[in-house]
């Protein structure tokens, strides 16, 4: 997951929205940690559940990473301004966990990653990731680099 | 009585998350602790939107300040300072408290102290058990934080020894309660079910406890996944999920790691006191196991009463009073809310006013010699 996040970092640029879905414990935050490393942003990427959203500024001249957990948000986010973030979203890479049905209105273009893990009490640590690019931004992008 | 009257009288404002807290203390004596549950249980269940929390703080702010002053039986004019949480927390929510604190401080002609939320969680114990021993080892566990901190002086030196690398302890409780359909917040309800369950029924993993793992860091994500999977397997097999045993075994895994690492940190650093703060400190099993292990290791345990462990204004006032007592520099009028204020900064001193400057306050409110409030 972490390595996938690092590879994902190479594909992303300011203004991109990534939506992560998957069961509790699928590895959404772990993937985001790799993404943060790949983007070279400040701070440890930990679960944003409690604070809803956390901004990780770039350590270089790249875009900041905005890590959102939409689980506790009651309704849809008509405007991300509701999150009270002090960064411009068009200048940032945004990753949203649990955002289905809540943040689609933000942009037509988004990259969707669905992480599936084995269900039940098993030692099976394999994760299956389904990547779907939506909108013009991703129509021509080559996501095959994610396969490594 | 004469002695206590000499101690600093400070009002503290806390708005880092979704409780509007205002406390008044004199030195290490609690005079008032007013909390407005700005977002009621129903709304919390549906979820929290930061912007909504900020608005709720705004509405609750002035009434809660008035209530705290009334409860304390003091006049705003008698205050020696106004303290406020400057961070970390939700940016918009913090801003409401900081703005209110500035307005009151300026109008009253009192020094302003922007302080750290985490250091406040430690300092609040002075209201319960008297002056903090120096050094103090602190285990802070809440919905947003899980940290081991060592402080030799709560106003100037707080050192992080370890923290969670993924989920906070309280968050793990909330998420497991979610999987078990027990509602939000998860801590109290899991605590309740766990009392009737067997903590050894299921061997859930203890994160980061291997010999090569970081000695003082925590990880609760793997535990969360293991518990979720165990429950899924039961459900898939059509069996009933033993909620009491799952709660007890999960809770045991969390508090086992927390207390084990905290006691180890005390031993390694040669500290004979451990304080536990933050919302999870209200957990009965954490208190019991910490007591047991501290006694065995010859460490004195200090845990404030539950109401002082969760977010409140009294803890901010307690740290503010300590800042005044130790002559720490007041904050400038351009103090800003810092959502990611590092734990190593117990307060935000004004520029050009070094720590311990004996006349720090006077410079800061030169602009407001007139008391606009009276």
Report on this model:
The complex is a heterodimer of chains A (148) and B (374). Chain A has 148 residues and is α/β, with parallel strands linked by helices. Chain A has helices at 2-11, 28-39, 136-139; strands at 17-21, 53-56, 65-69, 93-97, 110-117, 127-134. The mean pLDDT of chain A is 85. In chain B, the strands form two sheets. A five-stranded mixed beta sheet of chain B has the order 3-2-1-4-5, sandwiched between helices. In chain B, strands 8-7-6-9-10 form a five-stranded mixed beta sheet, with helices on both faces. Mean pLDDT of chain B is 90; it is low at 41-46 and 353-369. Chain B has 374 residues and is an alpha/beta fold. In chain B, 43% of the residues lie in helices and 17% in strands. At the A-B interface, strand 2 of A face helix 3, helix 4, helix 7 and helix 9 of B.
The low-pLDDT segments of chain B are 41-46, 353-369
Which H/E pattern describes the elements of chain A?
Answer: HEHEEEEEH
Question: Strand order within the widest sheet of chain A?
Answer: 2-3-4-1-5-6
Number of strands of chain B: 10
Cofactor (chain B): Fe(2+)
Family (chain B): Belongs to the KAE1 / TsaD family.
Region (Disordered) (chain B): 337-374
EC number (chain B): 2.3.1.234
What order do the helices and strands come in, and which of them pair?
The complex is a heterodimer of chains A (148) and B (374).
Chain A: H1 2-11, E1 17-21, H2 28-39, E2 53-56, E3 65-69, E4 93-97, E5 110-117, E6 127-134, H3 136-139
Chain B: H1 2-5, E1 9-14, E2 20-26, E3 29-36, H2 41-46, H3 50-72, E4 81-87, H4 91-108, E5 112-116, H5 117-123, H6 126-129, E6 136-141, E7 146-153, E8 157-163, H7 169-179, H8 186-194, H9 221-236, H10 243-269, E9 273-277, H11 284-297, E10 300-302, H12 306-309, H13 313-325, H14 360-364
Parallel strand pairs in B: 1-4, 4-5, 6-9, 9-10
Antiparallel strand pairs in B: 1-2, 2-3, 6-7, 7-8
Helix pairs in contact in B: 3-4, 5-13, 7-8, 7-9, 7-10, 8-10, 9-10, 10-11
């Amino acid at each position: 997951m972490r390595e996938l996040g690092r590879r994902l970092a190479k594909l992303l640029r300011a203004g991109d929205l990534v939506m992560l879905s998957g069961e509790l414990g699928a590895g959404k935050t772990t993937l985001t940690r790799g993404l943060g490393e790949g983007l070279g942003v400040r701070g440890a990427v930990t679960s944003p559940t409690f604070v809803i959203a956390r901004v990780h500024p770039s350590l270089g001249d790249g875009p900041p990473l905005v890590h959102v957990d939409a689980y506790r948000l009651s309704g849809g986010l008509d405007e991300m301004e509701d999150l009270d973030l002090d960064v411009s979203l068009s200048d940032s890479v945004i990753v949203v966990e649990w955002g289905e049905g809540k943040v689609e209105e933000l942009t037509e273009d988004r990259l969707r990653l669905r992480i599936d893990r084995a269900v039940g009490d098993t030692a099976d640590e394999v994760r299956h990731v389904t990547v779907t690019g939506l909108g013009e931004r991703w129509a021509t992008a080559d996501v095959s680099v994610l396969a490594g | 009585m004469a002695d206590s009257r000499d101690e600093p009288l400070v009002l503290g404002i806390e708005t880092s998350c979704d409780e509007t807290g205002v406390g008044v203390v004199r030195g290490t004596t609690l005079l008032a602790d007013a909390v407005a549950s700005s977002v009621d249980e129903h709304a919390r269940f549906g979820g929290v939107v930061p912007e909504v929390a900020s608005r709720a703080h705004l509405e609750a702010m002035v009434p809660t300040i008035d209530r705290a002053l009334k409860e304390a039986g003091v006049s705003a004019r008698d205050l020696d300072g106004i303290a406020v949480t400057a961070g970390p927390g939700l940016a918009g929510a913090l801003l409401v408290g900081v703005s209110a604190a500035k307005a009151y401080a300026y109008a009253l002609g009192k020094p302003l102290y922007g302080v750290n939320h985490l250091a406040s969680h430690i300092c609040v114990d002075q209201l319960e058990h008297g002056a903090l021993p120096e050094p103090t080892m602190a285990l802070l566990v809440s919905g947003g934080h899980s940290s081991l901190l060592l402080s030799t002086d709560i106003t100037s030196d707080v050192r992080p020894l370890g923290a969670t690398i993924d989920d906070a302890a309280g968050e793990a409780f909330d998420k497991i309660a979610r999987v078990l359909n027990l509602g939000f917040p998860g801590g109290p309800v899991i605590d309740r079910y766990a009392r009737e369950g067997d903590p050894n029924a299921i061997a859930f993993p203890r994160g980061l406890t291997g010999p090569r793992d970081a000695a003082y860091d925590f990880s609760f994500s793997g535990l969360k996944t293991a518990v979720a999977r165990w429950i899924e397997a039961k459900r898939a097999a059509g069996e009933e999920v033993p909620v009491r045993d799952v709660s007890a075994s999960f809770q045991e895994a969390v508090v086992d790691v927390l207390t084990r690492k905290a006691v180890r940190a005390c031993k390694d650093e040669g500290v004979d006191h451990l304080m536990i703060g933050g919302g999870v400190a209200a957990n009965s099993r954490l208190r019991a196991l910490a007591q047991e292990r501290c006694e065995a290791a010859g460490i004195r345990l200090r845990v404030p009463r539950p109401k002082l462990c969760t977010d409140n204004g009294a803890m901010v006032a307690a740290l503010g009073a300590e800042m005044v007592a130790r002559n720490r520099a007041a904050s400038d009028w351009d103090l800003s809310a810092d959502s990611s204020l590092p734990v190593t900064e117990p307060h935000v001193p004004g520029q050009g006013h070094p720590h311990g400057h004996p006349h720090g306050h006077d410079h800061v409110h030169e602009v407001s010699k007139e008391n606009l409030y009276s």
